Amino acid sequence: MTPADDRTAMAEHDFILETRQLVKEFKGFVAVNDVSLRVRRGQIHALIGPNGAGKTTVFNLLTKFLIPTAGQILFNGHDITAEKPAQVARRGVVRSFQISATFPNLTVIENVRIGLQRALGTSFHFWRSAQSLDVLDARAFELLDTVGLREFAGYVTVELPYGRKRALEIATTLATDPELMLLDEPTQGMGHEDVERVTQLIRKVSANRTVLMVEHNMNVVANIADTISVLQRGQVIAEGPYASVSRNPQVLEAYMGSATEELRGAHGH
């Protein structure tokens, strides 16, 4: 291997996730058109774009809920294009918020325990005594501390305020110890205080993992994303840090009107 080859291999290793010319068609409608993304290891990477831009479809392709019409997906250098959702999850690609990932009638701590059980592969051993789950409690409380929910441990999940439910979903996702965490609209429908709390939480949990997020709230993206990819009509029209993306004429045009104000407004933060 020449030094140049070495450097290429090193550079490839920098990217935990890569899509190559990803295409998804639905009965003639092209929802994702030639999308090539490179998500750098250890970063928070945001996917933004107007409604209908193809962000959720990209997420569904990455987590294998949809099969691409064309193109490739690589995770840690392995081609995962043909893998099933469970295989991809075992590799460490875990998506939060696709559906509220919690059991509403169980307590907060029980939800986190279940996440930990899944990670241990004991989720189907229903005949095991409840006591055998106690060993998971120390780690469960650690995770609740991480997301600021220790005091809510005994609450039935359905009683939690909305923003705290989202924090619990992050905790149950963290329980599986993902290498790449996919967050789907993590602050959607939240008031300002909850948005702030969840934004700080995402920053905190990204410390030793990679986060790829779809997010509408420009302030959130401006504050925590290292790299932003902007989608429009299924294509990437811009990529880079917030400062450059938010000034890109094509991006401003894509966000016509109120969202353009939002883009510029967030820049002041």
Biggest sheet statistics: 6 strands, mixed
Annotation, overall tally of beta strands: 11
Low-confidence stretches: none
Alpha-carbon distance between the two ends: 46 Å
The shape, in one word, is: globular
What is the CATH C level class of the largest domain, in words? Answer: Alpha Beta
Structural description of this entry:
There is one protein chain. It contains 11 helices and 11 strands. With 269 residues, the protein is an alpha/beta fold. A hairpin with a 2-residue loop joins strand 5 and strand 6 (78-79). The chain has helices at residues 3-14, 55-62, 85-91, 108-120, 137-146, 162-174, 192-205, 218-224, 242-245, 249-254, 258-267; strands at 15-26, 29-35, 38-40, 44-48, 70-75, 78-79, 93-96, 180-184, 210-214, 227-232, 235-240. Helix 4 (108-120) packs across helix 5 (137-146) and helix 4 packs parallel to helix 6. It is 39% helix and 23% strand. The protein folds into 2 domains: 1-92 and 180-198 and 209-269, P-loop containing nucleotide triphosphate hydrolases (Rossmann fold, 3-Layer(aba) Sandwich), CATH 3.40.50; 100-177, no CATH class. The termini are far apart.
